[in-house]
């Protein structure tokens, strides 16, 4: 194992102006299922670590800290096998999922923060979505974070009172509390029954309102359920698992109801957006117009909506992200223009849901930035993703954890200054199965003063 003393106490005593940065070489750490290699030039130290091809592969560093304080963690890696993810685990629990974009050069990527205890600690780099090379990690004391510089002025200049009030309310609690959220009415009801508290946000889906799904028997009452929940004082969030309007394989391995996945359709977003006269472009507009009817129903009922279209685009597993960032951003702007300017829908708070800067459609069409993260067993603050979103807009937009698998520990959220404005746990086994979130943990999270529930946000429209 590698052991070092973090010089935070010395820095305080000496009044050092510059942060101390310590580099830990991966080849000197404790290795599990991985090996030291030297074939790829440009590494530091005496080698780097390769492997990360099985779920148990990991490298572990031992760090001795004089006092407990936040440290910025960075990973020096090489990613010749495409976009990947790794997981950082501090002292065997919590941590961060870290994106490792494809690269053939040795690259340094921010990996969030760690808060070591005074004394001995372990920092483990665990395989997540594997096949990458790790050279080293660095630790440096985190700079004190100043007040947020967010805007609560909607990007739609004609946003109605509901949308304006919702965005302003989120801004008023940002950094002070986190709103609890749950995807799907049935799962939200499970939380109410079993946890004893009702989430403040109901997550819903516009998936089953478009022609390619309705024509095959799909139907939905999500809009009606959203209106009913809003009448109870709750906040509504909608995503859209947009089934490709045409080109579904609809076979035994890729059934029609998987039609939002890249693997389930030959629909090509780049060619569809090549010009406005082709049939596939027309079908896209038809779907948008169909969804507009549902959004207008919500607007007529006085329900503002946290609207998160084209989610997880940068992952590429959905057809709207399969051809890279430019078509996805173009489609998002078409969607924004069509709903806002053509249909005059003004009850939407517009959310973007990818982290990479190359995918960002622009501050002029995004009210809130967000991410979806699924890391089983990790109830940490997801600080790496939060910090990347913070940098994405230079701290000018509110940040949300729009989908999560594992709930975050409120104490860690506060300690790490990971000021997610809300979380929304995905439905089914993610919330009720016990393997992603134990009932005891859920009760603990929902009882925290930091976590706001439905009963605690009553009258939120008058609290800004």
UniProtKB/TrEMBL annotation:
Listed InterPro entries: CBM6, Galactose-bd-like_sf, GH, GH26_dom, Glyco_hydro_26, Rhodanese-like_dom
GO MF terms, alphabetically ordered: carbohydrate binding; mannan endo-1,4-beta-mannosidase activity
Cross-referenced Pfam families: CBM_35 (PF16990), Glyco_hydro_26 (PF02156)
Rhodanese domain residues: 314-329
UniProt entry keywords in alphabetical sequence: Glycosidase, Hydrolase, Signal
Signal peptide, first to last residue: 1-19
Domain CBM6: start-end pairs: 22-140
SUPFAM superfamilies in alphabetical order: (Trans)glycosidases, Galactose-binding domain-like
Catalytic residues (UniProt): 312 (proton donor), 403 (nucleophile)
Any one GO BP annotation for this protein: substituted mannan metabolic process
Residue ranges of domain GH26 in the record: 161-455
Entry similarity comment: Belongs to the glycosyl hydrolase 26 family.
The name this protein goes by in its record: Glycoside hydrolase family 26 protein
Species this protein is from: Zopfia rhizophila CBS 207.26
């Amino acid at each position: 194992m590698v052991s070092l003393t973090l010089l935070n106490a010395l820095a305080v005593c000496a009044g050092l102006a510059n942060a101390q940065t310590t580099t830990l070489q991966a080849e000197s750490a404790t290795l599990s299922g991985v090996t030291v290699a030297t074939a790829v030039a440009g590494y530091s130290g005496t080698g780097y670590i390769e492997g990360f091809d099985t779920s148990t592969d990991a490298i572990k560093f031992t760090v001795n800290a004089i006092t407990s304080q936040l440290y910025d963690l960075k990973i020096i890696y090489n990613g010749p096998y495409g976009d990947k993810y790794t997981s950082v685990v501090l002292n065997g629990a919590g941590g961060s999922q870290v994106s490792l974009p494809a690269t053939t050069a040795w690259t340094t990527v921010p990996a969030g923060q760690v808060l070591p205890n005074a004394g001995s600690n372990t920092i483990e780099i665990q395989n997540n979505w594997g096949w990458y090379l790790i050279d080293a990690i660095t630790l440096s004391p985190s700079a004190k974070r100043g007040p947020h510089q967010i805007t609560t002025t909607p990007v739609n200049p004609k946003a109605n009172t509901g949308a304006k009030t919702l965005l302003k309310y989120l801004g008023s609690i940002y950094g002070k509390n986190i709103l609890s959220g749950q995807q799907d009415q049935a799962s939200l009801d499970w939380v109410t029954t079993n946890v004893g508290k009702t989430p403040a946000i109901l997550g819903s889906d516009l998936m089953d309102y478009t022609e390619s799904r309705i024509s095959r028997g799909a139907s939905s009452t999500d809009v009606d359920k959203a209106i009913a929940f809003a009448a109870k004082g709750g906040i509504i969030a909608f995503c859209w698992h947009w089934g490709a309007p045409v080109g579904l394989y609809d076979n035994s391995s890729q059934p029609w109801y998987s039609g939002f996945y890249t693997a389930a359709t030959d629909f090509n977003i780049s060619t569809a957006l090549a010009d406005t006269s082709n049939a596939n472009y027309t079908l896209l507009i038809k779907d948008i117009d169909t969804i507009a009817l549902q959004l207008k129903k919500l607007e007529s009922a006085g329900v503002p909506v946290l609207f998160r279209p084209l989610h997880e685009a940068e992952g590429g597993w959905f057809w709207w992200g399969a051809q890279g960032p430019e078509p996805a951003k173009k489609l998002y702007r078409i969607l924004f223009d069509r709903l806002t300017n053509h249909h005059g829908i003004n009850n939407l708070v517009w959310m973007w849901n990818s982290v990479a800067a190359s995918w960002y459609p622009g501050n002029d069409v995004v009210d809130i930035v967000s991410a979806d993260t699924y890391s089983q067993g990790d109830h940490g603050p997801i600080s790496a993703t939060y910090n990347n979103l913070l940098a994405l807009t230079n701290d000018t937009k509110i940040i949300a954890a729009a989908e999560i698998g594992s709930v975050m520990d409120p104490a860690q959220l506060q300690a790490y200054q990971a000021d997610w404005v809300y979380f929304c746990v995905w439905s089914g086994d993610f919330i009720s199965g016990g393997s992603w979130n134990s009932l005891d943990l859920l009760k603990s999270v929902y009882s925290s003063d930091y976590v706001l529930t439905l009963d605690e946000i009553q009258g939120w429209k008058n609290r800004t």
